[in-house]
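Retro notes (design track)

What went well: tokenization of the new backbones is finally stable.
What didn't: we kept losing track of which sequence belonged to which structure.
Fix going forward: every design gets posted as structure first, then sequence, in one message. First example under the new rule, 274 residues:
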């Protein structure tokens, strides 16, 4: 009889401990469904406007071609029967992630927030807002500054033939240009997250402002290597990338310093209260 009652108690304990887990899994499933629906809806909307979005992304290249060689009818090519269609699908998904990110980020925050203290929720929310804003700024930096520089560099290799000289003409594929734009926007969007990442590490007390100040020269070398990889091989393009990222690194140090001061002030107030 005692064995049966002990087994029943154990079953009740198991069920009681598994109930919160099932609730969390149900909540997670709900958040994932909303996120997937938001992404699918945004991607469909972007696919309907894929041609217009692609033309917007082409504008820096077309503008440089018109200025450099007076070409008012710049052409791209595609070498596969489905290349343009798949390029539009890729563009739709990429743009859909941008469009749906606020909803996806809110779903993540809503899932995580109940497990955080009130002060932790207040501390996490600014980073959630700053991350997409900085990513968009990185994308705009690519669109207005980097793409014209790269287009100017790429078209500078063209030459007019005649008198025994061959004609060299740029024939850019639709998918190749899209892949370049997506890679650049992703790279710069992530690099512009530097203040958010460093501030989070500082908030968690995993890194100090003194460590960051001592690591300035190493950061500069890393940023220069990043710039050399993602920009055309000319000094101007590399400086154009290095300067803003280095400024973001300095802003990161300043953010960590402010957090350390606030933490020291809170510790002093706590000691005085005791």
């Amino acid at each position: 009889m005692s064995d049966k009652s002990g087994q029943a108690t154990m079953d009740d304990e198991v069920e009681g401990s598994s109930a919160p887990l099932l609730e969390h899994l149900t909540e997670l499933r709900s958040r994932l469904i909303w996120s997937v629906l938001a992404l699918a809806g945004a991607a469909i909307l972007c696919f309907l406007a894929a041609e217009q979005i692609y033309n917007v992304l082409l504008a820096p290249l077309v503008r440089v071609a018109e200025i450099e060689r007076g070409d008012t009818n710049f052409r791209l090519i595609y070498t596969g029967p489905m290349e343009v269609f798949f390029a539009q699908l890729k563009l739709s998904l990429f743009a859909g992630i941008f469009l749906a990110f606020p909803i996806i980020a809110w779903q993540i925050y809503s899932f995580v927030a109940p497990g955080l203290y009130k002060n932790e929720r207040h501390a996490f929310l600014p980073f959630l807002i700053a991350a997409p804003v900085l990513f968009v700024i990185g994308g705009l930096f690519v669109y207005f500054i980097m793409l014209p520089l790269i287009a100017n560099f790429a078209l500078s290799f063209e030459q007019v033939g005649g008198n025994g000289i061959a004609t060299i003409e740029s024939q850019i594929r639709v998918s190749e240009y899209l892949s370049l734009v997506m890679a650049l926007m992703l790279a710069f969007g992530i690099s512009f997250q530097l203040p958010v990442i460093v501030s989070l590490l500082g908030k968690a007390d995993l890194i100090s402002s003194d460590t960051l100040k001592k690591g300035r020269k190493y950061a500069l070398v890393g940023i220069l290597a990043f710039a050399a990889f993602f920009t055309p091989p000319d000094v101007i393009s590399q400086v154009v990338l290095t300067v803003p990222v280095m400024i973001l690194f300095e802003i990161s140090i300043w953010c960590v310093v402010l957090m350390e001061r606030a933490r020291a002030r809170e510790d002093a107030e706590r000691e005085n209260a005791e």
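Added context from the reviewer: The chain has nine helices and no strands.
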